[in-house]
Amino acid sequence: MVDFLKEAEGIEQEVIGWRRHVHQYPELLMDLPETAAFVERELRNMGYEPEYICQSGIVAVLDSQKPGKTLLLRADMDALPIGEESGLEYASKHPGISHACGHDTHIAMLLGAAKLLMKHKDLLRGKVKFMFQPGEEGGGGARTMVEAGVLRSPDVDACMAFHQVVARDHVPTGIIGYTRGPMMASADMFRITVRGKSAHGASPESGVNPVQILCQIYNGLQSIECSEKPRGSALALTIGQISAGRAGNVIPEQGFMCGSIRAYEENVRSLAKRRLREISEQTAAMYGGRAEVEFPSELPATVNDLQVGDEMFGYVKELVGEEGTMMLPQIMGGEDFAEVLKEAPGVLFRVSLGDKQEGYPYISHNSKVIFNESGMKHAVAAFAHCAVRWLNAH
Predict the structure, then answer these.
(1) Where in the chain is the domain with CATH 3.40.630.10?
(2) Superkingdom of this entry's organism (predicted)?
(3) I need a labelling partner for 237 at 20 to 30 A (CA). Which of 15, 120, 174, 340 fits?
(4) SS3 content of the chain, % helix, strand, coil (to 5)
């Protein structure tokens, strides 16, 4: 068996170079012309025939020409609308946009794996499908690619992805982390619009104040998390925006508030969404107004398949040893690889690109975040090693 960690070390500088190039030219959501063109070019240089299946969404297939199953490996590619303050010499050249969530590292790691697997194609059975996805940061990219057929022709039997983790306590660079079952929460963004009746501040009795109604709805929603969810279940219902009116002496016609619901379990998620709608509508009606509830963005929980996840984690341990792995706790953040995991059994691993003890204090989505590039080779190697082992075992 090839030592894929040693192989990954051999192309480490090339992987870092890919990452730094992408890092300088970040793009948002589904519109990634420069990023997608770069990925397409590098894949063609390796001998692949990549195809666009949706806006900025690229798929490439490595066919071993031997019978077997199909394993999908995925990387997301979009950046964030956050100006970079890292001070790096290869910092973003696009003002107000940066790869603060490390998707540039994900691209580079999967390109590295694609290069190693093409080199060692003779070790494979079946097919490896590479998915380079736009629009993870709220763009619905995974769902778009699923609907465009990323899991078909050939049909995908299992899937695998990596997400970087940084600035944790005592999770050193290169550690590969695994969470059994639900690992990241669902993320449902909501907007509650309350319509009342405008009036002068001197005669409030002639109006219906949406500000008052919004306050009552806000208070009522607290009961969902405090006393209505099943005991022992996790739920985060957060309001992050409230807005109404333009003048202090005028009761406005309407107002709104926005927030998110996050849960690991589908029954808890459904309960919270149902009760949010009921409390909003009934509270508004009680005060003479009307509430409309919308969910502009809905994302299921990220749930690792136990059979595929445990098996792949065993292969990771073969590669890096027990000491190179760690069981990591669930987190309330969302990840749209969940849309792929809904359709095909698979696993999302995490790879550490620096912890606090090593001098990496800034978390993802921070304008000053810096990632330790030396950890990327572990994910490159794990992608390749797991692909060879899993496809030969099935």
Answers:
(1) 4-183+301-393
(2) Bacteria
(3) 340
(4) 40, 25, 35
Contacts of 377 by beta carbon, 8 Å cutoff, 6+ apart: 5, 8, 9, 12, 15, 112, 174
The boundaries of every CATH 3.30.70.360 domain in the chain are: 187-299
Residue 30 makes CB contacts below 8 A (sequence gap 6+) with: 54, 55, 56, 78, 134, 135, 139, 141, 144
pLDDT at 197: 98
Cβ pair 24, 92 in contact under 8 A = yes
Position 1 scores a pLDDT of: 83
Please give the radius of gyration of the chain, using alpha carbons only, rounded to the nearest integer. 23
Q: How far apart are CA 302 and CA 70, in angstroms?
A: 21
141 close to 135: Cβ distance less than 8 angstroms? yes
> Alpha-carbon distance 334 to 370, whole Å?
21
CATH topology of domain 4-183+301-393: Aminopeptidase (3.40.630)
Phi and psi of 361, rounded to 5°? -85, -15
Give the tokens for residue 59. 């798929």
54-72 residue pLDDT tens: 999 999 999 999 999 999 9
Q: Which of 88, 119, 118, 96 is nearest to 16 (CA)?
A: 88
Global pTM?
A: 0.95
Report which of 289, 353, 377, 340 is spatially closest to residue 129, judged by C-alpha positions: 340
Start-to-end Cα distance in the chain: 17
> Could you tell me which residues are annotated as the binding site for Mn(2+)?
101, 103, 137, 163, 365
CA 232-238-241 angle, to 5 degrees, is 175
Name, in order, each residue with C-beta under 8 angstroms of 236's C-beta and a sequence gap of 6 or more: 185, 225, 260, 261, 262, 263, 332
The CA-CA-CA angle for residues 177, 183, 188, to 5°, reads 140
Architecture of the 187-299 domain: 2-Layer Sandwich (3.30)
pLDDT at 219: 98
- Mean pLDDT for 188-199 is 98
Cα distances from 344 to residues 73, 119, 306, in angstroms, run: 12, 27, 12
- 233 and 263 in contact (C-beta within 8 Å)? yes
